Structures
1.
Amino acid sequence: MSKVNSMTGFGFGTYNFEIAEEKFANVHLEIKTVNSRYLDIQIRLPNEYSELEPKIRKIIGDKISRGRISIFSKRDVRIASKGANLNQEEITKYLNKCTKIAKDTNSYSEDFQSKLLLRLMSSSTFISSESSVEEISDKEKKIFLDEFTKTFKQVEQSREQEGLAAINSVKEYAQELRVFSKKLESFKINPEQYRKRIEELIEPIIKDIKVDESRLASEIAVIAEKRDICEELNRLESHLTSLDKAIEGGGVLGRKLEFTCQELNREFNTIGSKANDAEVQQIALSAKLSIDKIREQSANIE
């Protein structure tokens, strides 16, 4: 059986690398995929990586044909403490303000300013950082795309694992349908024998009544034809064969399964309505429940 993918998957990663001397980028990447009838790619990247969006869409489009894919990435830049640019003007203003408050509240001491200054120096609040969008290097672009590919492989693996579980369930329900179909074979009727049976049943009733023999024969033939489920069973066998081939063929088959379920449901509906037998109707009802389970699984298969 060939590989089948689910439309549900998840992958994430966080990585750090140096982008300049004493300057590091911390990037978080998250990819999530869920069910959708069509391919829907939603991307939220840092402004620095926005030009990489077409390449990312191509990577996804080459691997996925159906589902909603949500991509989120966040990029933070950190400056190493050794080379940190302290905002001296802001520190001075803050220090003077705190000193005034301390004196006004009689909480000032000789070492007040030195202790406060040490605390401020260790805080990231007054470390200068670049808030504007910077132009990134080709090296960083390559690193991001490489990390995206690694994270996307996580998604592919989870989709494959869930797809295997889903198609195994479909295979199990398909076997149930085979069993139901085989049971229905015993309820097939021979139209000619059915006509003779009806004639035998009504003969005592009409023996003393003048009837139109040709009209009676015509009505009996219509009744026999309405009760005959041979054609439905033949079409049922054809659809079940198509279902087996689709399962074994793998690949992108979610919509194939949905279509086959519609056809199978139609045949079992017809059999249940044509057969004047409670057991046949119960078999048809059980089969439709199995079809619904296949349809549920196919909604999550690519």
2.
Amino acid sequence: MAKIFALLLLCIVPASAFGAVVPTISLRPVISANPSYQTPNASVVLTAIAKVPKGEVTYTWTVDDVEIARGIDIDKITLTAGAGGSTKVVRVFLVDAQGAEGEALYLIRPGSVDLVWEGNTYIPPLYAGKALPTGDSMIQVQALPHIEIGSGRVPKNSLVYTWEVEGQKLEAASGFGKSVLRIKPTKLKYQTRVSVTASTPDGTIGARASATIPLYNPVVVIYEEKPLSGTWYTQATPAMTTLSADEVAFRAIPYFVLDPKSVSFVWTLSGEPFEIDTPDRSIAVFRKTGEGAGEYPVGVTIEKRDSLFERASSRFVLSF
């Protein structure tokens, strides 16, 4: 019996002598980025999120396998994204005092997106600028993404677009391949804020951009109407103009209206309206009579009935 007791005691003693075995708990960090989609050569803040107590965990950060930071509670770093199409592999390793470990990975793959906008308003032939939106017009916004994977650019029709106006998501306008947005301007404001996020279908790569689109007033520009060549679009009528012949015609051209045929034209001479004797009311003809000389202010106003926005005026001084 004594031998059996000794054997049993021998089996029991080691466990009590070395203590209970505590299983290693795995830390589970996650890396978040601000901004969530990075632009080329811009700063990005990475934060390792983990449910760990302060003062007990060592963080080690590496970029492309090169250590860049190490220390207790260093849960945040700031980096600079590379060029478009590049990739930086960021890892963070966590170790606590009990030996528990954890690791997380984040890929910085910067992209960009340009926003090009215009109004659906009228501009005359040969005008080099774009049609500007007014309070009456629609606004069209085109997203031009620059997102690359490896050595190739992702086609714009292969991306998912999320559109926002004044911070509110437009569900119907967002979705796969929807790179164009058409909206009315924000009511009771002089500008409209539009944002877009273009991303791959899995959301791993993307870019975000915003634009503040101002509203403009229509303008009317007066050009000389040549007998043979027509409207002289290359030069607007100067503020001081000399009658170059016994009879000269001038045409008023509206810019940034919905339809130039829907506006009325009122011409004035020395501040007084006068009748136009041509079917085209946008043209006024001036004839020199007699041998006298003088200066006469000439003006024109365009206006659309029942519109708060489509109204503009222009003037010049005509000397004989």
3.
Amino acid sequence: MRQGRSKRCARRRRVGKILASALAPGCVMVFVPACDVAPPIRIDQSCAMQGGCIEGDAPGFPVRLARAGRYRLASDLVVPDADTTALVVAASHVELDLAGFAITRRGCLRKASPADPQPTPTPARDASSALDASCPTVSGAGLGVSIEGAAVPGLSIRDGRVSGMGGDGMRVGEGATLTRIRARSNGGRGLVAGARSWVADSEVTRNAGAGVVVGEASVVSGSRVVGNGGAGIRAAAGALVHHNAVAHNAGPGLELDDATWGDNTIDANHGGTVVGGRDEGGNRCDGSTCP
């Protein structure tokens, strides 16, 4: 199998060289598919506590991702309290696959796992989630995922859950991509991303602060943002907010600077429907056309 893959890779490289030689001088940009891609680095509760997940990382939380590359959770990550951060990204261009696992606080899993052998005994109301729906929101300094410094661009996180953190569920920098994330019952905001970021196909519910907060020229799409303690979605100038369901938030459904909003469903938000922004149509507010 390995020999066959090596032959295919060699053919691809030859094709790239042929195409490059056929181009006119000065036009040599050719895409050659990558072949020998290293597998992602595994992160789990055991290596997080022992300091063996990543070379140079100290034992315990937070786990520090100090170089670019691909990472993948192999278990839930459970921090001991609301003041502890789970993951800190210290390098640009990191890809983090949560692989369906949860980043959470001790006591917030509805069933025992190697990360938390003593889960809360309260039955979950949401049987589709490994997180306990009754996990209380507690304020603290801990974040699910954060960045080290102000300039850590190009972070991509997908396919997992963050719940019960003392602060924001995830707080990331510019050019970030957050897809298929469930952020629930965090003591701060749900998902926070810098300029030119993308938040998509996510579920952000019952966080103490705003649900989703994004910087300039970002996109928030295809997400469900319900029951948060501030605005549902807060977006800076140049952002696009579309195809979202935003309901029952304590603040306005959408709180926008010079951002565009379209094809959203906005219902029963206690602070009103929309503040600011430019309506591009297709929105529904409390069961009718938005004013």
4.
Amino acid sequence: MNTFHTSSITRSVLLLGLVSVVADRSAVAEEIVVDVNTTIDVGSPLIGPDLSVVDGANPPTVLDVQTHSGGDIRVHGTSIVNVRNGSWIGSTDVFDHGTLNLFDGRVYDDLNVYGFGTVNVFDNGVVEEKLKVHGSSTVNVFGGTMEGLFALSSEGTNTSTVNVSGGNIGSGIFTGNSKVTISGGETIGFTARDNSTIEIRGGLFMSSSFSSLVGDSAVVNIFGRDLEFNDGVLTGFLLDGTPISHEFQITDSAQVNLINVPEPASVTLMLLAVSICVLLKRRSWTGRRRSPTGAF
């Protein structure tokens, strides 16, 4: 597979003209290497071909996608790719310590993150297929929409980290040593396997017909108020106040732990009661010290 640096493409455009370079795809490299800060906008010669974004002389390389680029993107090293302005990109892989920020745009295929890479999905970000988290990578879902969110770190030293505070993640599959925190957003449920750990503090479980499956040695910790199981169905309120009525199927040595947290008012009353008890105890002790046998 042929590759060219962006500087080579720029020279080609100057010598041959934009139309001749882009029109004849057989003469254009299958993948273009981007190693300098670059913006893809209307008329850019980088629209169409697949791109590999790598560290150049002044890392990190930053690629800003401002229009539909069409091609697949590979992010390497410490490079950063920002997708904005409703842009569309193809299948995307993030490697090493690379970062993809999906601000306002769409990945119209799978999005994979490996190694120690990071993916941040914001309110208007869309992953048409699945967001797959491998290795020791990190995904933060602040908003947006995706068909599914899969944390697939292999067992061993790798621990993929997923934080969901908004958006619609469809369904989730969490395996290996994945660590997942759900504090917001919407989902129909998830499957947890191996040694994965899931912490649920909020969010909306939308489907009453979908069960979450927890197996192997997976652990699910759920924080809220008035949480209880009735015939496998969890009811109550999550910590963010969202009501929940969702079925869990638990197998093997897996655990689902319910942590009922008192409401702030209850905590205040409890602290007040403790303070009164301490004060009364001190007064009682002072009264004994000033008894008639030791009167002044």
